[in-house]
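User: Solute carrier family 13 member 3, Gadus morhua:
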Amino acid sequence: MEISVLFRKLWCVRKQLIVFLTPLVLLPLLFGLPEKEGKCLYVVLLMAVFWCTEALPLAVTAMLPVCLFPTMGILPSKKVCPQYFLDTNFLFLSGLIMASAIEEWGLHRRIALKVLKIVGVKPAWLILGMMLTASFLSMWLSNTATTAMMLPIANAILESLFGDLETLKRNCRSGEDAENEVINGTGMTFHRYELQTLMNKQTNKQTNQGALPPHRQDGAEQGDGRTAEEVREEAQYQMQIWKGFLICIPYAASIGGTATLTGTAPNLILIGQLKSYFPECDVINFGSWFAFALPLMLIFLFLGWLWIAFLYGGLNTRLCIKKQDRRAEAEVKAQAVIEDDYRKLGPVNFAEASIAFFFVLFAVLLFTRDPKFVTGWSVFFPKGYVSDAVTGVIIVSILFFFPSQKPSFSWWFNPQASNSAYVPLLSWKKAQDSVPWNIILLLGGGFAMAKGCEESGLASWIGGHLQPLAEVPAPAAAMLLTAFVACFTEFASNTATIIIFLPVIAIAASVNPLYLMIPTTVGSSFAFMLPVSTPPNSIAFASGHLLVKDMVKTGVVMNILGVLCVSLAMNTWGVAMFDLNSYPEWAPPVNVSSTLVHMHIPPIPGLNVTL
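Assistant: Predicted structure for Solute carrier family 13 member 3:
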């Protein structure tokens, strides 16, 4: 009994113990390796442990290089601090500000309801509509906000289709204790953001807008001629569909974020690491990444839809309601929910139209600046002067003074008109409240770590000890790394995961570095198996209707599909887009024999490293 009490006490102070003991455990590194390399490795491993265990807040761990690199003689502060606001950080910041403006005026909600109106209310098609909408929105918004916005809409539609959820559960259990079917969302304690607050905010907002209507059905009708067994089977099938809706939204949000550089932090970390280790590399920007990642996202989304639709209800498009008239009535009610919610939004106002215009302009200008496969508009400026960050900041800056109400010429001559100050599309207070500044620090911490590894010589030291990896065939190495990172990120932040592993992959690559770095980066977003893997998974699980085994069963296959899709993309259009068949001039080998400069990856099929 005393031992169990002691373990409980230790568990209560586990984070403090990690913070205290980890620096002591890693001390031998300072004496067993060359001076600067050992010190840098000490800091890198210390940060890796803190990130993986979240012993300190992620953003606080990200700031450790500011104090440790200068005091340990690894890097002066004047070289460390600028890493926290590189142009890559400004690109991400501009994307976050644009997203906050879209949320402010509800444009994302109008897009979501419009898509659902188009796809209809048949289960398989409705799941596809949910996934398409969530993936598109998460290309520009955070996947957390997308999930929090979409789940209440899904629940409202499902209630109109199947009735009250508690009644449905009772029908599923046929009189057994329904509470055994529900797991309380204890994973909420692992959240990295204020997920429950965000969820409540979204739910309250949508309740005010009519998104959460009262229950439209009372479950099984009395005297409708169905036996108890038929009621149970029908309810079980409908409950499966309900779970499919809950699980498809966070998965689609995670997949959608991979399609744009600003969609998820790991994509931007890739750009920052490339600029740190390979300053001459200008192959990847917003346009070229979008051209590569969008087809990958669509293929994965389609396969994911087939799997989820098959697993949760089958690929038939009919509701599991025996009587034709009852099925038709349920479909009409569900369609009415969507129509009613969309109608309550009213006509598109001036602010929504303006945000839509700037949103499209933001995307088009980023895509066409220098897409590589055609000449972009950046040729009108001195080479290297205009980056994606410049483009993004120009567009979002306009939002802070562009009026949200349609300007009126007659206002100047109407003494009765209101003389109150006009309201811009976005206020700084709104941007300040909605932008997750901790992610900016997390990005900066990753870039600072990369800079320290490079200048301390740790990168070269690690590269020299990873020569055996050159013997592994490139396609196999890429698949193994992608699968490993996808599994690792189930237990750690995808941002922290890619910060830890990407530098090692960059310096160990004996092929075109992009051939290993791109799939690893994309794979870090494929965290589907556990509730605590990503904030979207946690939001869906916290609803209390999903079991851990539901997420594991679905997520294992999703991870496999993701790894296969990334491998397909890298070995087909990725080879052509990024010239992966040869070792690039912008990536001089680090501590590797000069013969590797002439390495060649033979065309598919039979892609192998040739030394």
